């Protein structure tokens, strides 16, 4: 134990043995929903019987925020929900939740179900997500340290953020328990708002409080305002996974009030976290904002654009061509398509591609000249708060030595990210908002306690089971005890073309790692249901789910052979519901009477299955965990490695009963 009293050493579990080989499988975008023709998981032959897990425990502020890989894998790996933005470091919500049992309606019911995993002892927790239907709360005043309970009458959920009292309390880092009622009618909603736990919220706070403009990052870019142009590059939607339109709007306002006289916005259209086709509307909103700025004398325009999956937002270095296409349009002002207006550009280009894949375009003036290339003396801000799809562009903008593609010109600019995208690489070196620190992740504990680890996925999700899993940190904790293997993803295609992706290769690597008996934890992410689900192609997504299912079988067979344990779960939903639904849950039709395909993640819970011949008899899902979620998995897995989890981790989901 060090002088601080901290020790990496974990206690031995009183009842569970060490030394069992454990397979940790994350099915990306694999949620639970009723079987119907838009459910590609139940549509797959040999379907699994899955159970619900509520995604809220990943720390997103409201029940309207769908889960995503980042927050999902952060929670899975870190075992805690991090409170940020003014509240004490560490865990804030769980203590409170524990003392609030009576008002929480999330149950963790063990359901012993015969399933395709039936060869093994297997338990399914049911984490219900019926928070919306909770009984009204009666308390109306401060009742616990750092948590305030509210019952709000006649207030829609969307107005909550606009309520000055609430936004003040959120701003100073309080957790709020909020119930919303309309007059004397039944409860509309009740949820606990955890003090800002996620990146989007950190940016919200910095913008709302104005602190963003006092920070080092903004002061740095501001130096360019007098003579240079401010370029804002990022995803244009209100999806809230990588970026949010309202944050761009606030930043435009804030920067122009603080001296930015010439602003160019380089947009990336979405259609992945929001409905396909919605990009036109977002561009119109932005154009309207920019024209208002122009009325105030600010020279503000959209300068370039393209679909996020084809332009700029590649990740984990899968295809530098994507970033190059963006660079050419944004920095060099060159693109195959030239338009006078961005609305016109998006409308026209949508005739040949969907929002995610629009080809790059630049906006040109009357003389046909690009209106906003990046030149020496300019400032650039990348707007996305989420790291994975901004790191590659950040490298191109920041690194003097760079050989991934020919940049042609490398302008001398002042560049800041919305956040620091990689803490290990310190990239970018300047950023507007400080990221949360996620330390003492389960991966780091495990290597300190003798658990050797093998992690693998294909490129598009490789960072999810390494970087996100380890608290947004790249590299090994201890290279003698860890091996991370990346299988190159297909590039230059949309994944509905090859929906099996690299599931077979990933499972073969995992199988070999298990059978080698060199590692006590073998962790994989199987991307199929998510990546193909995002394409909106239902038939291909069924094939994708089947491929992931077969990969899991191979891994489970290997676990069977070595007498090990498996944990199979997912990070959020996607493939289990591929249609936009109305409030009644019915498929929604567009203006032309067509079904609206849902390419985004969902709000659905995810399964968690534990089993295998190495699972000690008497292991059960606990009945007394009122609110189980992804953050509870880390402690559970530590137990299965024969260790007691750190006390500040979210509680384990299992117990051992004497038979
Ligand atoms: O593709 C992505 O970037 C996101 C959706 O925006 O998906 P995931 O969170 O599953 O990585
Ligand atoms: Mn995911
Ligand atoms: Mn996804």
TrEMBL record:
InterPro entries: Alkaline_phosphatase_core_sf, BPG-indep_PGM_N, Metalloenzyme, PGAM_B_sf, Pgm_bpd_ind. GO terms for biological process: glucose catabolic process; glycolytic process; response to blue light; response to carbon dioxide; stomatal movement. Residues 23-643 form the Metalloenzyme domain. It is found in: Cytoplasm. Keywords: Cytoplasm, Glycolysis, Isomerase, Manganese, Metal-binding. PANTHER family: 2,3-BISPHOSPHOGLYCERATE-INDEPENDENT PHOSPHOGLYCERATE MUTASE (PTHR31637), 2,3-BISPHOSPHOGLYCERATE-INDEPENDENT PHOSPHOGLYCERATE MUTASE 1 (PTHR31637:SF7). This is phosphoglycerate mutase (2,3-diphosphoglycerate-independent). It comes from Camellia sinensis var. sinensis (China tea).
